Amino acid sequence: MNQNDLLNITSATYADARQEMEQLLEARAPNYSLPQPLYNDPQMFRVDMEEVFQKEWLFVGMSSEVPSKGDYITLEIGQNPVLIVRDAEGNINAFHNTCRHRGSRICTKERGKAANLVCPYHTWTYDLKGNLLFAGSDMGESFDMKQNGLKKALCKTAGGFIFISLAAQAPQGDFDEFLATLDEYMEPYDVENTKLAVESNMYEKANWKLVIENNRECYHCAANHPELLNSLLEWDDTNDPRAPQDFVDHYNTQAAEWDAEGIPHEHRSFGPGKRNRIVRMPLKKGTQAMTMDGSEGSKKLLGRIKNPQLGSMRILHLPNSWNHMQSDHFVVFRVLPISAQESLVTTKWFVHKDAVEGVDYDVKKLRHVWDATNDQDRVLGEENQRGINSIGYQPGPYSETYEFAVINFLEWYSDTVRKNLQHR
Ligand code: 3BY
Ligand code: FES
Ligand code: FE
């Protein structure tokens, strides 16, 4: 909890907070930004954590980050440390990263490789499937090793994307249909044969919903993102109410090539508020990747891709990820809430696993555009938060032509929180 949160703490009990959340969502005007407490109140943040981040499917990372047996990554979902590890059979498993002895965090690094998972405190040792192998010298006769394995989190992988859920039972919905589409649309990229080139972790002093809202519109792009607009065309897809004819023509020309090559591109979306969405859109004419001059980020095209002009396949997964898949590299984004007014935005750039740094790609060139864009968005998010904290703030109207995807996000958020509160 940060300083702001301590100042904001109210005496309301948590049951009152849940009730307040219901009332605020019930009363909200759908095409307006949210009431202030939903962006800055620690109690409302706790409801977000319990009803969204501890229940829904979350994007955590890519399968090529854990390419072989024993490779792991760790992350924190609020106060919940989680461990993602590949086992001997090649399956990717997710566990609560908390020891069954006295609860210590087991894996303490952000990524690594381990033959077994050994707790640093008293060396209780688990295999890569979470079974307890060793528990010290004498735990007494009644101690049952089988009852003391690591606690599992739900974990699903498709198209190289790893998702987890901390819920006891898988969240309802059409998530599996989205995963099947993700498998189909990601096939050309062969994620298993990619590697992480570089990663950035950016702390942003803004509520997680402000980070996502900012990403869901390009109304702010012209005034803020000169580097990104070298290559990005700002329209959401060809259904965007603002899409001009020359953009639609450009798309149609590219789409004909993609069809001939068996490269999926058509818009698919799933769930309320288009919670999961995939579409391929062309980049600006004369560019092929999100670099400063629009030239390639890496000389080795990914997977079975032959045509460098694949635009960017955009993948959205609410509540915590957006992504840009290009012919030669892809960039994945993950948002994790830290507190009511702070979020962690992790960005990872992937290239072909055989691409050689300094020969096929230059990290500085690869990351330049999104480093600049992320930092610009961070400032926008932080200023948004500071203004929202004012006693002068009142919810303001979204533009239905420029900000329809923000409206969609909040529709999903509101429906999800209300549904989950009712099912408690
Ligand atoms: O992620 C994108 O595609 C961009 C960045 C800014 C707005 N958003 C639509
Ligand atoms: Fe893990 Fe003691 S807390 S071995
Ligand atoms: Fe932006």
UniProtKB/TrEMBL annotation:
Residues 57-164 form the Rieske domain. Its cofactor is Fe cation. Pfam families: Rieske (PF00355), Ring_hydroxyl_A (PF00848). Keywords: 2Fe-2S, Iron, Iron-sulfur, Metal-binding, Oxidoreductase. It comes from the Bacteria. InterPro entries: Rieske_2Fe-2S, Rieske_2Fe-2S_sf, Ring_hydroxy_dOase_asu_C_dom, Rng_hydr_dOase-A. This is Rieske 2Fe-2S family protein. It comes from Neptunomonas qingdaonensis.
